[in-house]
Amino acid sequence: MKLLDLTFPSPAENLACDEALLNWCETGRGEEVLRFWESPEYFIVVGYGNKLCTETNMAACKTKGIPIYRRCSGGGTVLQGPGCLNYTLVLKITADGPLRTIASANRFIMERNRETIERLLPKSETRAPVAVRGHTDLCLGDLKFSGNSQRRRKHFLLFHGTFLLNLNLVLVGELLPMPSKQPDYREHRRHADFLINLGIPASAVKNAVRAAWKSEMPLGIVPRNQVACLAHEKYNTEKWNQKF
Fold first, then answer.
1. Model confidence over 72-120: pLDDT tens digits?
2. In this structure, what DSSP letter does residue 185 have?
3. N vs C: which end of the chain shows fewer Cβ within 10 Å?
4. Residue 122's pLDDT band (boundaries 50, 70, 90)?
């Protein structure tokens, strides 16, 4: 698996890059890849089917100048910005492999990431264990630090998610209302009582995840033209971002 540690200058380009990598592989030109990125600016990202008026505090976002974008995968709405490390996996689907269905891919990828973070965190008698909760959440006990989602094509899938390291969780509560769909374990807790930062360096997380997925050699060709095209024609447009 190849490695791409690349943050583009704009939110639209960063979102477009994940889809471009998936399309690149699906056409037979790309390779399995692990990508990392972390936005230097705050913005909101809603899941593909989310309604902006339901899942975001649009008035607060407008007042604070926080833009809202839509991604190509499902899942809930998140705040991006400094302290939120993103990872992306583009993996090949095989008929008899662990990625053959949505559910089996979730189990396979989430368990590997769970084990990776569990080994990375310092051991303590009082520390809660790292657990997979809901379908694709990683938690310390019942406090969420990672949300994930996937998009599938015929031959490859895109699986991407976040690691909360030092994100401004107060801002999350100001910009995002309670989600319309909640996992049972959340028990209607507000964001401040539900989310947790790991408080560890991004470099440590990157090294651990790289090792877990055996991602060593850098990706030789980045489909930058496709990224630019998707950013311009899709991710920077009201037609896409205000789709629902």
1. 999 999 999 999 999 999 999 999 999 999 999 999 999 999 999 999 9
2. G
3. C
4. confident
**How wide is the angle at C-alpha 41 spanned by C-alphas 11 and 45, nearest 5°?**
45
Least Cα distance to 117 among 213, 203, 214, 198 occurs for: 198
Domain presence at residue 104: no
Q: Give residue 182's domain range.
A: 2-96+149-241
Q: Which residues of 167-191 are buried (b: 16+ CB within 10 A; e: fewer)?
A: bbbebbbebbbebeeebeebeeeeb
What average pLDDT does this structure show over 192-200? 96
Q: Residue 67 burial by CB count (10 A; 0-12/13-18/19+): exposed, middle or buried?
A: middle
Phi and psi, residue 90, nearest 5°: -115, 115
H or E stretch at 102: helix 102-120
* Residue 197 tokens, joined: 């930062």
Provide the pairing of β-strand 43-46 with 68-70. Answer: parallel
Q: Is residue 177 part of a domain?
A: yes
* Number of domains into which the chain is organized: 1
- Tell me, what CATH number does 163's domain have? 3.30.930.10
